[in-house]
What we know:
- By secondary structure, the protein is an alpha+beta fold.
- 38% of the residues lie in helices and 23% in strands.
- It has a six-stranded antiparallel beta barrel. A five-stranded mixed beta sheet has the order 6-5-3-8-9, with no helix packed on it. Strands 2-10-7-4 form a four-stranded antiparallel beta sheet, with no helix packed on it.
- The radius of gyration is 54 Å and the shape is rod-shaped.
- It starts with 15 loop residues before the first helix and ends with a strand.
Amino acid sequence: xxxxxxxxxxxxxxxxxxxxxxxxxxxxxxxxxxxxxxxxxxxxxxxxxxxxxxxxxxxxxxxxxxxxxxxxxxxxxxxxxxxxxxxxxxxxxxxxxxxxxxxxxxxxxxxxxxxxxxxxxxxxxxxxxxxxxxxxxxxxxxxxxxxxxxxxxxxxxxxxxxxxxxxxxxxxxxxxxxxxxxxxxxxxxxxxxxxxxxxxxxxxxxxxxxxxxxxxxxxxxxxxxxxxxxxxxxxxxxxxxxxxxxxxxxxxxxxxxxxxxxxxxxxxxxxxxxxxxxxxxxxxxxxxxxxxxxxxxxxxxxxxxxxxxxxxxxxxxxxxxxxxxxxxxxxxxxxxxxxxxxxxxxxxxxxxxxxxxxxxxxxxxxxxxxxxxxxxxxxxxxxxxxxxxxxxxxxxxxxxxxxxx
Length: 405
């Protein structure tokens, strides 16, 4: 018999079929509960997935380095923080002698000069060198055709000689004895004429009392005396000028002409001497830029064979070598002049040279975010310059955390 109502609480009674369905849907019902052994499987899978993602994150952070480090971390790594607040430790500090940086670079000669003519140009007539030749300062490396420069020098020298002779001809020391004698003779003649004119005037004045002399003759005799005195004065002054020489202003002007002519002569001689191209330093010839018959012009750009070139060769002092390395801006604070370095060339990495940081360039390369640093290489005394290390060779520089000895 199926009850139709719940008499205890006054509600209608549920049918048995509906009650059985409800019991089957209960989570806690024994018939619907899953097996105890399968309840931990989802949690294990979640744990494995979390561990895998954690490993990927750690590996990614290591490969990124310090590029994406926040400003606070970068400040802590460089050892500078806010005043009064200790910076967070970014890792163990480098100890004395530890490696600070290891970078590749290229060797450069500290002193390297392109030998070209100075203020002259012409065709090469003589070459006295080849690559790898050691040369001493002043050695004649090459000669240019000096025909036109020789002519310019001779013309300037002749002009100077003529100007000097004109100046010398105006000096009192240049007066010849015959010129002096002629001036003295003219003075004596003027004095003699004055004496004669004075005697004539005295005789006419003596005869005037007798009335035998006309006034006209007396006036003429007096004028002759005055003229004679003027001629005497003129002759005396001419002799003085001859012995004294020209005015000082004229001498100064002529002296200026001489100095100008001498300067033109010296400039022509300097250009003539520059037709011989000499080694400016003791060093080694690195490259040959011209040959006999080539046209060399210091104002020209380098061109192919047969055209004009700006220089004849390059000479470098291979006993003084440096390495140019590129240091990232974020690492430049690790570098300072005086730090000890080890240099190994790719030619033979086992052959290690000592050196030191010489200078940090005062300008950065904004396209690469680097700053160039020069490292001086110490060559052993027993090694001949240029024997092993060449300019532009690739080397590896190891910067150590200690001062060079």
